[in-house]
Design a protein that fits this description.
heterodimer; A: 304 residues; alpha/beta; 13 strands; B: alpha/beta; Rossmann fold; seven-stranded mixed β-sheet
Chain lengths: 304, 198
């Protein structure tokens, strides 16, 4: 006969989520889901670039709006974190604003627009221009996690290809670009090889951002909600864009500078400013542009 | 005659403490050899250390079978894990998602699940309790997560384990991942970390 005697302290009451939304768990997800995602994240970090399957939950926004990124952020974020959310580099677009509000409401966390102040940055399709640090985690929203999917639609086959390190088809695809157009024409979601092993989709970031992933001091986590995959790149890990000796990887360059802040080193958006097709170019990273303007930098103001 | 079990409490604030412990483990896994310190909020039943108990409470549940080395299979330790985590306790190390062992007597690493080439994430995470864990001379670590090298002094680990570790690394992408624990200090060695002993 075995009797279980509770410890004298065992009746400590469970405190509610500190500043979250009444009726919801801290950061929206239930604890069992968080544990499942957390275990997937740890294995993803241990196997850089490998896509770990996870039980993606239905979230209060549609697939394609960042459900994977949100679930990763919800599993990672704590009450002391400062969250920044960007969509195509900007803090003030619909997707970024609503995700930021979601975590401000459900987790009660502080949010910021400033890259340097953030401890967790969730991003759709950009890496901030300011180099990230060891104290930051970058969470990517990923639509199609499988880099080989357009070349091989069957999951069972692509899984085998990753297992056997069989990436010839990807090189052939890049080579076909060169044969047809004289250069590799992929401008976003440009495939990378992580730590010399797995070929990985960097999510649809412009290839301009690919070099920033290489040996980044921050931890990079990727969440694909609809496709139910999580993957990761640990800090200081080699991330090489696929290329050929005679056709080395190159990033985009612009003749123009940012019209607002004059930056020559940032990724520029083309903005049509009237119905005659007049264009101006501005930084895609809205925080970078604002910081530069606040520091006194000025562009030419765009078309007059 | 009645045996009694001293069932110790788990986290006072499970949501926030589990998140905090997970972040420490994530950071340890992302920066192999860096030591993270888990807050001393638990008083787990001996011989479970604060670190090992906190990791289980944060990450284990009914989906994660746990294997315990024989010295950890005390009624109190099993009751603690079953009550707070609801995890099955398994007899075969290769069936476990997590395993807990002492550094001096940890089974050969190939006894645990190593996953397979198509599903390498199904390998065991082995929590190894040590006498002491410190930054400094001792092991030289390199690999993903490490800028140049990290130095780690892990005392109380069986000497031949590093030969097995090299074999484990040769299995990549398969292989076990280690979490070293001394009291409430933890350091992780994912399968990608190269360890040399000088």
């Amino acid at each position: 006969m075995t009797t279980v005697i509770p410890h004298p302290n065992a009746s400590v009451a469970t405190s509610a989520a500190p500043a979250g939304l009444a009726g919801y768990n801290f950061a929206y997800l239930d604890e069992q889901t968080k544990r499942m995602i957390r275990r997937a994240l740890l294995k993803a970090v241990a196997i850089p670039g490998y896509q770990v399957p996870f039980g993606s939950r239905e979230m209060p926004l549609p697939y394609g709006w960042g459900t994977g990124g949100i679930q990763v952020t919800a599993a990672v974020i704590g009450p002391d974190d400062v969250l920044k959310v960007i969509d195509q580099g900007a803090d003030d677009t619909t997707n970024a604003v609503s995700i930021r509000r979601f975590f401000a409401k459900t987790a009660g966390v502080a949010t910021t627009d400033r890259t340097v102040d953030a401890t967790v940055i969730q991003t759709r399709h950009r890496i901030p221009e300011v180099p990230l640090t060891e104290n930051q985690i970058l969470v990517y929203q990923v639509p199609i996690p499988e880099p080989l999917r357009q070349l091989e639609p069957r999951e069972a086959e692509t899984r085998k290809m990753h297992a056997l390190e069989e990436y010839g088809v990807m090189h052939v695809s890049l080579y076909e670009d060169i044969a047809k157009f004289g250069r590799i024409t992929r401008s976003y979601n440009y495939p990378v090889r992580v730590n010399g092993r797995y070929v990985m989709a960097p999510s649809p970031i412009p290839k301009f951002d690919n070099p920033k992933m290489d040996r980044m001091p921050a931890l990079q986590l990727f969440g694909a909600g609809r496709e139910k995959r999580i993957y990761a790149v640990p800090p200081y890990t080699d991330v090489k864009s696929l290329d050929f000796e005679d056709h080395p990887f190159e990033i985009e360059t612009w003749e123009e500078d940012c019209s607002l802040c004059g930056a020559q080193d940032s990724y520029l958006d083309e903005v049509i400013v009237d119905d005659k097709g007049t264009k101006m170019y501005v930084c895609s990273d809205s925080d970078y542009c604002r910081e530069r303007r606040e520091a006194g930098h000025q562009g030419d103001g765009g078309p007059k | 005659m009645t045996d009694t079990i001293d069932l110790r409490p788990g986290f006072a604030d499970p949501v926030i403490e589990a998140q905090n412990v997970f972040r420490l483990v994530l950071d340890a896994m992302a920066r192999p050899g860096r030591i993270a310190t888990i807050p001393e909020s638990l008083q787990p039943p001996s011989p479970l250390s604060v670190g090992a108990a906190a990791i289980c409470l944060a990450l284990a549940d009914h989906d994660t079978p746990i294997w315990l080395a024989p010295e950890f299979r005390t009624p109190s330790a099993i009751a603690f894990l079953k009550f707070h985590c609801g995890c099955p306790i398994v007899d075969v190390p290769a069936n476990a998602a997590f395993a807990i062992a002492n550094g001096a007597t940890v089974p050969a690493l190939d006894q645990f699940a190593i996953g397979d080439d198509a599903w390498p994430e199904t390998s065991t995470t082995v929590i190894v309790q040590l006498d002491d864990l410190a930054v400094g001379d001792g092991l030289v670590l390199s690999g993903p997560g490490i800028e140049t090298t990290h130095r780690l002094n892990a005392r109380g680990l069986r000497v031949d384990v590093w030969g097995e570790w090299r074999a484990n690394q040769g299995l990549f992408p398969c292989g076990v991942d280690l979490i070293l624990v001394a009291g409430n200090r933890i350091a992780a060695l994912p399968r990608t970390t190269t360890v040399s002993e000088n």
